């Protein structure tokens, strides 16, 4: 026997009340979820004076073995709250002086994706920002040594072009040909006036060294390889490939000369890609690239390239800890000067 409409009515009212309460709960949760977004939307964007981009950190940002970011973090952001950015590999940190920084990730795709996400995030105002792209790298023993710190005059893409096997070429000839029409994507001449400022402010920075690195340098006959570390300038070569050996090092120098750049002093992975991202949004007149050498890009004359890549215990270059310290020592001189003299720098690189 079916119930009468009068008997059904309390059940229907109760069900409607439960649905109403559920809808209110869902709406309340949605509003609460939007609160941080709405709060951020009403906040004024952070005016960035200097942005420091590192590529990796080994562990934590402080208190353990330092990678590329830790010394920067300990100097500028120990009390800063992390700012999560969708699309970036790690949070951004900013201090009250307008110095911001982040780990961007290793490799061209990884780092440039993070940089693009950060640049487009409305939490930040990059309209007057200066950039320091910071990290470790390799160096050819003919022109550099372990713990050197090199400001880039040019940043070049090592990969964008045509390559073929050496045995398919005239013996000893280059096996690289640039792809026409991609000039703006693969070579970046950094602002000479800004690079001059960087050298003026940091050339006399005392650099750390180690006995391990000192012993390792003596394995090489080159005068540049055997000397103490220094601050200098030169071309940075960006490639996703960790190229090693005298043949590929020679080819990197060939590419540098082919593009009209200075001698290549640094082999790294990210600079050209990050420079391109910054160029498309704000231009590269305020970009600096700073790298410290933690390895030679080839073995000494008494070892093969594979022996150089897979050394025996105790035969590594050493000097990593000292080099990451040197990078921050050198770079912070420029960061601090720009911030302390912001009125002179905010509208562009001042004349010397």
Estimated share of beta-strand residues: 15-25%
CATH architecture: 3-Layer(aba) Sandwich
Rg on CA atoms, Å: 26 Å
Mean pLDDT: 90
**Broad shape:** globular
Outline the secondary-structure elements.
Blueprint: H1 5-42, E1 46-47, E2 50-54, H2 70-76, E3 92-94, E4 99-103, H3 108-120, E5 124-125, E6 130-139, E7 149-157, E8 161-163, E9 176-178, H4 183-186, E10 187-189, H5 192-202, H6 211-217, H7 223-226, E11 231-238, H8 246-258, E12 264-268, H9 271-282, E13 287-296, H10 305-309, H11 320-340, H12 342-345
Parallel strand pairs: 1-5, 2-4, 2-6, 6-13, 7-11, 11-12
Antiparallel strand pairs: 3-4, 7-10, 7-13, 8-9
Helix pairs in contact: 3-9, 5-11
Summarize the structure.
This is Purine nucleoside permease. Helix 5 packs across helix 11 (320-340).
């Amino acid at each position: 026997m079916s119930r009468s409409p009068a008997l059904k009515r309390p059940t229907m009212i109760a069900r409607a009340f439960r649905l109403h309460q559920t809808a209110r709960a869902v709406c309340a949760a949605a509003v609460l979820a939007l609160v941080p977004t709405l709060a951020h939307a009403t906040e004024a964007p952070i005016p960035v004076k200097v942005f420091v981009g590192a590529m990796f950190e080994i562990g934590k940002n402080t208190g353990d073995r330092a990678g590329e970011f830790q010394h920067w973090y300990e100097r500028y952001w120990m009390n800063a709250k992390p700012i999560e950015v969708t699309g970036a590999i790690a949070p951004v940190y900013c201090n009250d002086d307008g110095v911001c920084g982040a780990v961007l990730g290793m490799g061209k795709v990884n780092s440039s994706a993070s940089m693009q996400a950060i640049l487009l995030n409305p939490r930040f105002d990059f309209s007057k920002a200066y950039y320091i792209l910071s990290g470790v790298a390799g160096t050819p023993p003919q022109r550099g040594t372990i713990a050197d710190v090199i400001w880039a005059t040019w940043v070049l893409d090592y990969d964008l072009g045509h390559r073929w096997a050496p045995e398919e070429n005239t013996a000893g000839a280059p096996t690289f040909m640039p792809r026409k029409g991609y000039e703006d994507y693969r070579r970046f001449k950094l602002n000479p006036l800004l690079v001059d400022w960087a050298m003026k402010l940091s050339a006399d920075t005392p650099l750390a060294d180690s006995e391990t690195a000192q012993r390792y340098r003596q394995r090489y006959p080159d005068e540049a390889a055997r000397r103490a570390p220094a601050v200098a300038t030169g071309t940075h070569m960006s490639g996703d490939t960790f190229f090693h050996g005298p043949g590929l090092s020679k080819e990197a120098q060939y590419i540098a000369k082919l593009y009209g750049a200075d001698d290549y002093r640094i082999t790294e992975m990210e600079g050209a890609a990050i420079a391109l991202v910054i160029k498309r949004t704000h231009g590269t007149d305020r970009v600096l690239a700073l790298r410290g050498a933690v390895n030679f890009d080839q073995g000494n004359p008494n070892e093969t390239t594979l022996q150089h890549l897979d050394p025996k215990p105790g035969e590594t270059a050493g000097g990593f800890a000292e080099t990451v310290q040197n990078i921050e020592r050198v770079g912070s001189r420029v960061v601090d000067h720009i911030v302390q003299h912001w009125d002179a720098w905010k509208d562009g690189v001042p004349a010397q």
